[in-house]
Structures are given as C-alpha cells and as structure tokens.
Design brief:
2 copies of one chain form a homodimer. The first copy, chain A, is mostly helical. Chain A has one domain: Arc Repressor Mutant, subunit A. Chain A has 5 helices and 2 strands; from the N terminus they run αααββαα. In chain A, strands 1-2 form a two-stranded antiparallel ribbon. In chain A, α2 packs across α3. The longest helix of chain A has 17 residues. Chain A starts with a helix and ends in a 13-residue tail after the last helix. The complex binds iron/sulfur cluster (SF4) (2 copies). One iron/sulfur cluster (SF4) binds next to α5 of chain A. Chain A binds a DNA duplex through α3.
Chain lengths: ~140, ~140
DNA sequence: TTTAAATACTACTAAAAGGTAGAATTAAAC
DNA sequence: GTTTAATTCTACCTTTTAGTAGTATTTAAA
C-alpha cells in the first residue's frame, strides 16, 4: 500500500520543477543533488517523463528540463498511469482477476468507498496543487 | 497502490478458512487447489501464518490447518502488519522519510483523509466480515 | 510396525524493481 | 573548429519479491 520508488521520484521531480519558478531550466545534475535521487537513475526517469510529454528537454550545453505544459494540466493520476501504478482501475484489491461489481471479492464492499476517495484525490490534484512553502522535497 | 502478492494470498487463505465452517481442518493440498495458489508457495505462507499465531497447524497424517482464534478477532490490519504492508503508519506517501505532521510532503494535506479512511477500514474489518455468499475466492 | 499423508525446513531458481557504467549525441560557449 | 556541459542510449549489476525442489519430521491409518 505504498507508491513504488520510481513513481515517488517522478512525482517529486515534477513537483519540484512545477513549483520553483525562479529558473527556466533545470539540469539533471542539480535535480539529482537537490532531490537526493541517484543521478543515473534520475536521468532514466527523465527520459520517460519526456516521452510521456510531461517534460520538455533541451539538449546540449546549457540545456535542461522544464514542464511541457502548465502545472495545472498535469494531475497526479496522469503520472500514476504513466508509471503503471493505478493501471487497471478495475483490478481487484485481492488480486483475483478483475472487478466488475458483479464478481466481487470478500473485501469489495469495504473497499469501494476509500478506493473512490483515493481515485478522486489523485485525479483532482495537479502539480500546481502541490505548491506550498515549507514542504519537504 | 496495490497489496503485494503474498499479502493477497494470505488474506484469501485466511478468509477462506474463516468462512467455510463445514470442516475442522484444511490441508495445504486442498487450499492450494481451491484458491489456485502454487502449493509450495502456499505452504511457505502457511508456516508464516502459524508463526504469527493466526493459524494453528496439526501435523502428521489427517492433519491440516485451522484458525487459532475466532475470525472476529483477526483484523485485516493484523494481517497487513504481519506482512509488512502497512509497516510504518507514519511513512511518507512520497517516500521522503517519516511524516510527523510538522514535516509535510507536498501531497500530505490531500492524503490524510483517504489515508485515515483506509486505515479505519482495515482496522475495523475482520475475517468474519469477509463472509458472504457468491464472493469469488 | 510399516506405510501413507500431512506439515516444516533448507536451499535454490526466476522475475521484477531499483540502480550503475560508459559511451554516443547534441548544441552553446570559447 | 574545439571544447565543454548537457541529454540520450545501451547494457549491465544488485536487491527484493515470487516461486520451486527436495528432504526431514510428524502422526494416524492400515
Ligand atoms: S474489492 Fe471489489 S473492487 Fe476491490 S477488487 Fe476486490 S472485487 Fe474488485
Ligand atoms: S503525505 Fe504527509 S503524511 Fe502522507 S506521507 Fe507525505 S508527509 Fe507524511
């Protein structure tokens, strides 16, 4: 019941870039240092974020990364989907195939409400909403 | 954001044993077949359930497994804890160390409510509550 | 008392996730 | 034009999780 490492990193990276408006571009080097993410692992994630069109990269000297669209247009759910976290909304909590509400597992009835709440939260929260001073990064 | 395989199996096994009252003991062989869990993997989980005192085992011919206490006294949270799922309630969703409400990550404020809802649900749901006819197993 | 059917133990293999290394490519600065 | 600082690509290594194999132990039935 936790987000996996890669997804956590991805959210933190996007969140940082989205909410630090003092610069145009951020290099992998500085992101790795500031966010304490292994450099080589971060660059791997960055290219995935670029391919997913969350991030726009400028190559070559003086290059770096920036958001490809406004922070308000990227929801946490978008990111989770990209990293296969919430993959199949219909997947059973107990892993017994898929859930179509007619073929319930034992935990179904208790799970639907919290599940919906999480879903809504992730859908309604954008990178913009993660702003705020004093937050750890 | 899903329970890992081993935990899913554990809940399904416990749930099945708890709610099928037609027998005293269930053998690993029949549990594996009925629940479609690899036999060798299941026996491994069973010994962990025995050590965690959820299950009582009777060895030797005609032996098998049964609950070590009433189904109403084993919550899903108990099981999750045993399998290190909910380990540290205080662990940050974004993996930035621990959360003490004074040292928040960007998702904190959105996360607290759903988090509490899930927690309560897992704590208040016991093996007994997983009963019900027509549920897939 | 032997045999059969069950759990328990030890050790290994396979797959997925997390992470690292090094070279190739790009483009601005010099 | 060369150098330098950046991203990208390919390939590998490490750790964790999932799953398998074989044997030892236990105990009731035959
Ligand atoms: S609980 Fe219901 S909804 Fe959730 S997974 Fe199991 S079956 Fe599907
Ligand atoms: S979100 Fe807040 S509570 Fe949840 S983990 Fe991050 S810091 Fe802790």
């Amino acid at each position: 019941m936790q987000l996996n490492n890669t997804t956590q990193y991805a959210i933190r990276i996007l969140s940082y870039i989205a909410n630090k408006h003092d610069k145009q571009l951020y290099s992998a080097k500085e992101l790795a240092e500031i966010l304490s993410i292994p450099y080589k692992f971060l660059t791997k994630i960055m290219t995935e974020l670029v391919k997913a069109d969350f991030i726009l990269s400028i190559r070559g000297r003086e290059g770096g990364y920036k958001l490809s669209r406004p922070a308000s247009e990227i929801s946490i759910m978008d990111v989770l989907n990209q990293f296969n976290e919430f993959v199949e909304q219909k997947q059973c909590l107990l892993g017994i195939g898929m859930c179509d509400n007619n073929n319930k597992c034992g935990l179904h009835d208790q799970w639907v409400k919290p599940k919906k709440m999480i879903k809504d939260m992730f859908e309604n929260t954008t990178l913009e909403n993660l702003d705020g001073n004093g937050y750890k990064i």
